Amino acid sequence: MNDSTSILFGMPEIAVVDVERVADDGGKSGRLVHIERPEDWAACPECGVISTSVRQRRTTRPRDLPYGEEPIRVHWHKRQFACKEPLCARKAFTEAVAEIPPRARVTGRLCRAVAHQVASGRSVAAVGRQYRLGWPLVHRHFAIHADAVLPEPEPPHVLGIDETRRGRPQWIKNEATGRWTRTELFETNFVDLSGSGGLLGQAAGRTGKAVVDWLNTRGHAWKNQVRLVAIDPAACYRTAIKQALPHAVIVVDHFHLVALAGKALTAVRQRITREHRGRRGRAADPEWANRRRLLRGRERLSERTFTRMWNDLIDHELTGQILTAWIAKEELRSLLACAREQAPRSVISHRLHRFLSWCADSDIPELLTLAETIDAWWPETLAFITTGITNARTEGTNRLIKDAARVAFGFRNLTNQRRRVRLACTHQTINVPAA
Ligand SMILES: [Zn+2]
Q1: How much distance in Å is there from the Cα of 239 to the middle of ligand 1?
Q2: 11 plus 133 within the same structural domain
Q3: Contact at 8 Å (CB) between 397 and 191?
Q4: pLDDT at 56
Q5: In which residue ranges of the chain is pLDDT below 50?
């Protein structure tokens, strides 16, 4: 088969018989390609015996990749052969090629093209529109592709667990009471923090049960490989890890701890404004004007900015509670900085004591709660200080998860969405050539 038109068409095992110019549906001109297998024989798929006896001919119209700007259609002139082997149960068979298997209405190269387009981040609907193929067909081929390239997750030494919200919050009316309740759907993500496994999997909800079930599905040998688990400070996750991975060390993510201190500080500021001004904060209020500066780390404020913020609050916030909460936040940050500084145990104990007693002596309810939380999470916080492990990469994965989920907005089916999200997050890992 060395005819130049066949070479240009480029489908293995296929010869181009003729190309003609035809009027397309809309009156536009298009091209019609007639193809066939060049051999005048075929092997029976049942017994393997070669037959040259043609019983009948049929023409099928497989959809193929577009080529050039004008529409292109394909007519495949297929033959049905009679199987002459007396011992074979099959009396007749239709010839087929790898790119167009029996009963296929779409060529293999078109299927691969749409699968790659979806895998690269486009929506199933958009790819379907471009190639004029239905949603189920495009999705089916994407799923085949994704399942082939997605590896079974390898057990990581350090496992990261966190949550992402799936879609927007919804309001659901309870028909019996007539009350509306706000519901949010969450997914729990399992991420490889030590290796290159990327997003290992997702489970519906953010409950301990979701975590336990997902881990137990992996099996004993898998679970035994996990040495450390980084989580958000959520009690249900901690309980679940203690149950499913009793040997693993739990590390609480320090960004979330700093965020808790920031929330306590904001709560104090809003309460002070309410108590002393009888309203919500306004731009003219010094504490409101400084609200973002307060949350920034001390070392990220210039001397000038810091002095102005400090003096503003000394002069105008007479209870001193906002500055007390700010110092509590900085004390917690200094305690957590022991991880970076590889501080000895004596320094860690000293800073912990300083933070806890500062909160306790303040008598500010928000700071007492903060101190209780840190105390309740002390083993996991200390595990962060000694290992330095954070969920930061999980947060990076979160962005990928959200991007992929946004494109896959049409997915009602969670398995489909998870496959899609996992592929997006594992993409870089898959594409990295072996070093
Ligand atoms: Zn046969």
Answers
A1: 62
A2: no
A3: yes
A4: 94
A5: 410, 428-435
Beta strands at 228-231 and 15-23: parallel, antiparallel or unpaired? unpaired
Q: Write out pLDDT tens, residues 20-57.
A: 998 866 667 889 999 999 999 999 998 989 999 999 99
CATH of the domain at 208: 3.30.420.10
- Is 60 within the bounds of a domain? yes
State the distance from the centre of ligand 1 to the C-alpha of 435, rounded, in angstroms: 48
Q: Are residues 292 and 204 in the same domain?
A: no
Helix axes 345-362, 321-336, angle to 10 degrees: 160
Alpha carbon of 11 to ligand 1 centroid (Å): 26
Q: Are residues 275 and 372 in the same domain?
A: yes
Q: Which domain holds residue 348?
A: 254-387
Q: What is the distance in A from the centroid of ligand 1 to the CA of 143? A: 34
Q: How far apart are CA 262 and CA 269, in angstroms?
A: 11
Q: Answer yes or no: do 88 and 168 share one domain.
A: no
Question: How far apart are the CA of 59 and the centre of ligand 1, in A?
Answer: 23
pLDDT for 431 equals 40
User: Do the beta carbons of residue 91 and residue 82 sit within 8 Å?
Assistant: yes
- Between the CA of 82 and the centroid of ligand 1 the distance, in Å, is 8
Say yes or no: 76 and 10 in one domain: yes
Residue partners of 163: CB distance under 8 A and separation at least 6: 186, 187, 188, 189, 206, 232, 234
